[in-house]
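Dear colleague,

As promised, here are the two records you asked about, laid out in our usual form so they can be pasted straight into your sheet.

NAME FIELD: protein one
SEQUENCE, THEN STRUCTURE:
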Amino acid sequence: MKIADHPMTDKIPVTVLTGYLGAGKTTLLNRILTEPHGKKYAVIVNEFGEIGIDNELVVGADEEVFEMNNGCICCTVRGDLIRILDGLMKRKGKFDAIIVETTGLADPAPVAQTFFMDQDVSDAARLDAVVTVADAKWLSDRLKDAPEAKNQIAFADVIILNKTDLVTPEQLDEVEARIRAINPYAKVHRTQNAAVPLNEVLDRKAFDLDRIIELEPDFLEEGHHHHDEEIQSVSVAIDGEVDPEKFMPWISNLTQVEGPNILRCKGIVAFPNEPKRFVFQGVHMILDGDVQGEWKPGEKHTSKVVFIGRNLNEKAIRDGFLACAA
C-alpha cells in the first residue's frame, strides 16, 4: 500500500467534474470560472469525438483550457492526461487548482487512478474530489440503461442534483433515494442551473486521507444499508482493534481479486499499540493508506470498512473483515 511521500497540502488540488450528457457540467464549469473568487484555474476538457465543442462553451479568458479529443478520457487519453498534467506542473504557481471535465460517457475511475498510479503526477497533484452533476429529470432513466451513469454516481464525493425545477417534489425525493441506494456517502446538493456554493464543490479534500475523519466524523458510526439492483454498498464494523498481520494481506488480496467490481472503498481501522488510526481508500485495485490522526483519550477504538461496487460478495467481505479482529 502506497504511503504518501510528502504532505497533501503542498500539492495542487484537482477536481474531476463528471456527469451524464446534458446534466449541466459546462454550466457548473462556467460558474466556477466566472464567479469573483480571485482564483485561477487550469481546465482540461475532454469531448468525445473528432471535434471538441466544449472548448468554445467554456468561458473565462484567464484560464488555460487544454483539450483532449482523441478518444474517451477513460482509456487512451490517460496518457494525454498525464502529459498535460506534467506540462502544467512545470508552471506551478500560475494557477491555484486544476479542473478536469470528462466526457458524459466517461467512467471517472481511470481518471481518479491516474493520480495514484503516475508517480510524477501524484507527487505534484492531489485528487481533491470527484463531483458528479446529475439531471433530476432523466437520471432515473439513465440509471436503467447507462452503466456509466451509475459509475459516475457511485464514484462521486459530491453530487449536484440539477434541474430540480423540471420535476415534482415527489419525483425529486424518488431520484435522490435512487442516488442514495447507489452511494450513501456522497454529499448531495439539489440545484437549478447548477447553482451551488463553490466551496461545496472545490477544495473539498474528499480524497485527502487526512480529511476523511474530519469531513466525516460519523464515518465510524453504523450507517444505513442501501442496496441498488446492481450497485451496492457494504459496510462492516468491528467494535475494537484489528490485527495488521491479518488485515493488510486481507485488504490487499480482496482488492486484487475483486478490484474490477470495487468502485470505491475506504476505511478507518485501529491497530493494537498504535496511537494513530490507519486510514485507507481505494479505486478498483489501487489502495492508498497511512496511519494518521491520533485516537482521542478515552475514545472507543472502532474499526470500519466500506465498499461500493458491483456483484460484491457481502458475506465474504463481512466474514473476511471480522476474521481480522485482534
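NAME FIELD: protein two
SEQUENCE, THEN STRUCTURE:
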Amino acid sequence: MAKRLLGKEVNEKLNARIIADCEALKAQGVQPTLAIVRCGERPDDLSYEKGATKRAETLGVAVEKFLLPEDVSKEELLKVIDEINANDKIHGVLMFRPLPKHLKADQDEICNRLDPRKDVDGMTDLSNAGVFMGKTLGFAPCTPSACMEILAHYGIDLTGKKAVVIGRSLVVGKPLGMMLMGKNATVTTCHTRTKDVPSVTREADILVSAAGVLKSLTKEYVKPGQIVIDVSINWDEEKGGIAGDAVFDEVEPIVEAITPVPGGVGAVTTSVLIGHVVEAAKRANS
C-alpha cells in the first residue's frame, strides 16, 4: 500500500508558520489583508471563496470582498483593480478566473493591471516571469506552490530525479515544471500532442498529473517506487464527489506514495494562498 501524502499534515506546519508571521506583523500595526474580486456567482468560485475566507479568518488574515455582477464592464473592473492597487492596507488579491465571457478577450490586460506585488496567485506576466527567472516578482500560482510544499514536507529530495508533469497550462503545468527544475529535477512535460505518454511517465521518479481528465491516469502510466502528485479536481458522477486524474484503486497499490483527492494538493492550496498574502504584507512592511 502506498504512503498517502496528506494535505492535512502539510497544513499543520504551514499554518503554524503563517500564524506566527501574522502575529508578528500585527505587533507592528500591520493587518495582513486579502482582497477577493469576483464577477458573477459561479458555483466553483463561490466554493473556493468560502474556503479561502474561512482559512484566512482562522489564520488571522482579514478579507475584503469586491463582488461584481457577471455583466460588469471592463472599465468598471479596471477601476476596482486600480482602487485595490492604491490601497496600502490591501496586500494580496485573489481574482477569480476565467472572467465572464464578454471579458475573455481582455483577460490578459485586466490581470496585468494588478500590481504584481499584490498578485498572490500568479495572475500577472511579471509573476510568471519571476517563476521562470527564479526571482521574487509577485508569487507563483498557488496550486504548483502547494505541490512543492507537499514534496518538501515529506522530505522528497528532487535533486537528480526524473520528474514528469502531465499538462502544460500556465496555471499549473508550466510553472510547476520550472519550480521542479529549480530544485534540480530533470523535467519532462507531457501534453495532448505527446506520443505514447505512458512510456514517458513510467520513466519518472516523480509523476505529476495535471491533465484535468477523470480516470486518465491508469496503472499503465505508473511503476513501483514512484511518487505521484495528483493535482486535478474532477467531478465523478459515479461516486457523487470529486476525484483526481488517477484511477486511485489501480494506481495506489503500485506506487510508493500518492496524494489523495480530496485531501491532497487542494487541501494545501488555500493555505498557500493565505501564506502568500502574509508574505506580501511582510515585503510591503520591510
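A couple of things worth noting about protein two: DSSP finds ten helices and eleven strands in the chain. Residues 7-27 form the longest helix (21 residues).

Best,
R.
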